[in-house]
## 1
Amino acid sequence: MSRVKTLQALFKRYRRPGDIVFAWFALVVSVVLLSQITDQTVWRDGKPVMAQPRFWPAVSLGGMAGFAALHLIGSALSERIEGRWQEVRLWFASLEFAGWFIAYAIVVPYAGYLPTTLVFAVLLCLRMGYRSRGMLLAAGVTAVVIVVLFKSLLKVNLPGGRVYEVLPEGLRQIMLTYF
Amino acid sequence: MENLISGLEILLRWDVGLALLIGSIGGVIIGAIPGVGPAVAIAILLPATFSLDPIVGLTMLLGIYGSSMYGGAIPAVLINTPGTAVNALTSYDGYPMTQRGEAHRAVSLAYSASFWGGIIGILCLILLSPVLAIIAPMFGSREIFLAALLGIILVILAHRGQIFAAGLLAMFGIFLETVGLHAATYTPRYTFELTFLSSGINLIVVVLGLFALSQAFFLLIEPDSSPDAKPVRGKMSAGIKELLGHKRVATVASGFGVILGMIPGTGEFTAQFMSYTYAQKTSKTPDDFGKGSPEGLVASEAANNAVPAAAMIPLLALGIPGEALTAMMLSVFYVHNVIPGPQLFQNNIDLVYGLYFALIALNVIVMVFLLFSTNLLTKVIRIPTRFLGVMILLLSFVGVYSLRNSLTDCMIASGFGVLGLVLKRLNLPIVPIILGMVLGGIMEVKLRSALPRLQSPLDMINRPIAAILFGIIILVLILHVRTMIREWRAHQVDEDHDLHDAQQR
């Protein structure tokens, strides 16, 4: 990190590879959304413009499209930064972890919060390249701590797993309430 | 006086005390880990606090907010990586001090300056309360609308060099807030006939996606690293004595923190920079700045710790958050049907005093904790980044799913997580989206309720405070244009830096 000399320099943010891809994406999304304004909002006769249900979507989407266009012009006129598509590939790589997150959310109501968290913590650690027994143990212990903290102590609103239904009566109640 | 006592009584409740202890100590630990930060922690904990009493939930979140910067100073000083965004300038002088074998001096001085700033910020908040109680009721719908508009403008203009992107993202935030049924006419807006969109896009889901999940994705796609922070030897209380030699710098820096903390969109970052510049200009040894100057360290840490208390001023008095963390706290108020704003000072003043006392207590707790546990925290810094990513992912699930057990929320949060990752990779700001959502909602509601009393558009600014706010908006815009013209004429050479990377956490 270089030493910053002025307030202006401090507040400046600089372009990174892939900026123009984002700029195009933002402009297309804004324009597509704006083109839907008559279908997706209504106009009520007799009401002042600023009280219309359409007013704020129009202001925000109009602003979005305007700023997106200016951002794109700025990007297009700036010097090209190498590594654009490599960067975009990294963005797509994050979809794998979004998939892990959604899979985790799908499994919890069936397999229960404690078993799912434990299994996902260890599996994700393996996926991330950790092989040592210490790291895998740490993942397991942390998963249990998370469950105990949120479900057992703070009693956050998480469903009991359907798999718990097959457990013996006393244990089933404990698992449904605390884990 | 009665209100003061009932405020103190609130703090003496065991559950409030426990929440404060957990929040304060948890905040220090979270602040000390580069890659987590208070925004991630508050976003994850937010839904868990909904089932708690408002004062208990708020105290816990306030604890994290107020204490994370203390912890953030440790990696800034020891490994040249700010633990939180606002410790960026701390590393400028803290790390060179570590390099020349003065890590202990730097860390203890950072704690002491933070404590000084924190306490001055709270004292200002307490002293300003009677004034706020008088001024806040003068804010009607049109004044709050203009204040929120000013907030949006400042948030956009604060992102110099990326104003178009910041504007785009703020407008996107305002748009997100409009999705769903229109409150006054019950007509759908951008629901695309999808039932889950009828109730709108939940702010907490967006916050969790943009701050927590995106940070998990960010850490998971990067190569693994484990920062190595060496233990610090010596008595941590030594810094208090040294700080007394820099009273002037610490007090002025705290003043900057208080003033800029109150202004939406500016906050710790500007306060820190202005006080650093002030300290350098008035120092007898200005050349030492950036090379391990204790004054620079004091200026930076005192300024950023004065901000949390000051940031509570617009939140409590007007219901207007100035940055992402107070925007998240606003949702805790709303969930419990405690509406921050002018009425809060009339109807729930004991809650306000309770929060003030909580702020004082958290500074004391954190200071005592740090005097004995700094070396323990240097071990926490070493947690591998990918492991952290896994844990943030698991914790994000608690936040999103516990809201209403909805898989759709998890999918929406994942979408925002990917968007947040792209923005972080591009060095673009996330905060304008959140503030756009919150301030956009406020602007729509307040403009709608102001409209029936307006005969002409000029009536919008025919009251003194409204006129002042309008004047400030115009002044801010003129000053911005003037600065742009000056910069254009000066042809300053651009200096690229990664300072804002940390701002995303």
## 2
Amino acid sequence: MLTTTPRLYTRRPSPTTAEFTVTTLPPPTIPLRILRVLLLALRVALVLLTALALHARWLSSPYAQPSLPSTCPTGDGWFSMEAVWYALDTLHKSSLGQLVGGLVENVPLVVLLPAAAALCYLLALRVHTTESLLVMRGLGVQTSSSPATYLASATSRFIPTEKIRDIFVNEAFRGFEVRYYLIVVVEGEENVVVVFPRLLPRRSIVETVWRGARACLYESRGGDTTEEKG
Amino acid sequence: MVEHDGLMRVFWPTDVVKFDRPGVVVGWRNSNLDVFVVAVLDDVDARDVEFHIKHGTFFRSSPHTPSHAFELCGHSSMHVLGISNPTDPSAMNPSWLCAVPSSSRRSPRITCAKASSVQLIMYNRPRPKGMQYISLDPIALALDYEGSDTRHPKTVGPDSAEEKQEKQAHEQRQKLVEKLKQHTIVKRVPSARDKALAKIVNQVNWSWELEQTLQKNVGRLGPRPKRSLSVSQQVVESAATMRNYVLQQLLEIFTLYLFPTIRQIFVSLLTLHRLVAEAFLVLLEFRIKPGRPALKDVSATAQQIEIRLQQFCYWPMQYVKLRERKSNWASINTSHPDYIRFYNSLWLVANDVIIGLALGSYIIDHADFVASAVEGLLKTYTVDALQSSILWLTGWPAGLKLNDELAAFLGDLFLWVIDYWASKYLTRLRDKLLTMAIDCVETLGPFLPKIVWFIGFSSFAGASMPIAMVSDMLSALTVHIYSFYLASARIYHWQLVILQSLFHLFRGKKHNVLRNRIDSCDYDLDQLLVGTILFTLLFFLLPTVVVFYLNFAVARMIIISLKAVFDTMLSCLNHFPLFALMLRLKDPRRLPGGIRFELRDTLVATSATGTVTEPPTSVIYLKSVPLSFTAMFNQYFQMAHRIRKHYLSPSVLLCLLTGRFVPPIDRRNLYSLQYSMLPAKRATVGEMWKALKVEKKTPNATQYPVLPKLPTLPGRRMGRTRSGL
């Protein structure tokens, strides 16, 4: 429900510049938005819970400072460090805190720390994948792809027009199916650049992008819009 | 009047968004409809600006000649590109653009009579004074990526087979790509606009300084100031002149008399130091025969000393090169990687010394404790553990029924050597290193505190020194394990080979060496009988030999991995890209890793009120991509790859299983990382002397303005220069 099959949308403010984006993000509707907000809240809550568990484990170790202020700060002390410590203390004393503390108390650190790190990584994973191809006549093409987690930034690769040898649709076996994919052959490089490498959208999308990209990148001379290589 | 595809490409700086006055747009015209905007000059006449640009008025007072800028940007002069906020758009040159600031967007509105569509590319000006720049290719932190390969073209050992395989795969790929290229039907000729990209990158890098120059000198075009200076201003001015004059005189005394002397002394000291370093380097690089390893290839300490000396030799040259940067435009960015390399190596050495001081003072203060700990470790692991494991092997280990007699013989043999190693000593040489190599553990005992003290003292030259020494000491003190490994491997290998040929005999065959194949052979009965008996004997003795061999092979592998840990620590201390990492956090624009474009959403211009209708415009932001962390640590990845290929390959496993010698990885191969920061061939003493001498002259040549400078008051300056014209 959160994702769809890869779909294409195109932005083309002027005839010589176009951005083709393939994404698994479904068109926004109100239930979807609510769901996404809920998912985000769940993620944040789980991360906080992991932090709480780690803190409980720290408190049970002999290195921790034993005394926590247990008096409730009043007035403008609400935003001080003491208030934070007090809130943590009450959290630890609540039934949830007791449960979490009891769970992690006897887990060895060798298991606990990697498990916490893995959990945090899993919670930071993105649900949707977005990949795009920006075509600018006279400059070149740029492929970019959204990162796997929320922590990293998007990666992009710019190929100047001078270095583009050709753009075409290729086919390959993947498992038991045939996939059509768009590639850019770069001058002087032994690897071709695959556009939309993670999503590998359907043939119709690839074909649309291919036609659009060629029309956008090169001046139309007629006669070279129907060719395709397999 | 539309050109063939009518696409106009405009590069526009992001900091020019508010220009309310009518003005002139100045920049580079790369081709007819491909323009690069450097500055918008307010309140001037376009024809006036064009005239002065042609005659170079703008650059008359600049400290450096503008020819560098013109050469790198690919034009002989700047151009007038158009008008901003025109009062009368119809009177313009048709190829000029017309720029109007837009209230709703961050980008201006561009129109041109010849253009049917517009690509408006907004760029951030990199600050050349802060050493920011953009580039198409990632900045090269290493001196040259291929340096390691060109310097040591031939590698020996099992690597060659893997390299051959790699080369084959590479060729296969090349062929595939060639085939792919044949699919291309139409070979497109790149237009002038396509080729301009490299030029545009330079223009972006230069735009800040050029804009500063233009804006500073735009006043020269303006009208003469009406007002003369008031009395108070004149008083201030003469006081400032006096102060400047005194300061100038003081500076002159310093530069003319004091500074050259200090400089001369410093240069002589440097050269002296260089001579001593040269002597040491010659000693370290001396080879008995051309193919034989030099001292630096054998010992980690020697290699460490060599790296430091090489760095000391390289620094003056690097510094001289960096000083040249100051005497030219700041936008020239060819020396920025050198700058990063220079300060990275300085910082690493300083870090090394700081860590070394802490380590050294600890070791010296606790020399006795450290010595006893080291002795305990040595005794436990290289003597006692080995002895107990051999004893265990002689007495049916893990329920394996080995041959008692052979096990006892082998065990006694090794135990005897260990005893000898541990308790007696051969020679007592003054030379500590030789002593360590030949001497044995207990003789070492009394000397150990002194050695530890020496190592501690050496760490004042950097923490890498004691690590290298410990690495060397480890190989010296485990010579016995190494020799056991060699001996047992040899025995095991022989036995395997004999078993193989006897097996052929058992089957009535033999190995034909000439044709490298198995032939049938008619053996006599007695030959067959003896052969079979020997085969059985050797076959039943094999497990005993195997367990001894495995024992020592495992010990050897542990030592090799320990040394690998030391080597990794050394390479981290010597070549960690600390400065680059810091720059990446502080100012990522100083480490360009390429460029990236971002298409912005443009609101459809509903210009109901506007007098000019806007052609379809796409607004693109040009951004610099900072260098990725993987590119920063590329050298480390390469080294890890090389080690993995050497030690974790199937051929090494086969060597281990059949008892053949596993060759240690070539130090030169491992340390290609180290040389990526240093030139392949160091400058000779004469070259360094010359470079330092030349550098001495350059500042003198520019520091001879005898007349005191006048304070810069805008009105006054304009008047003077105007009258000078």
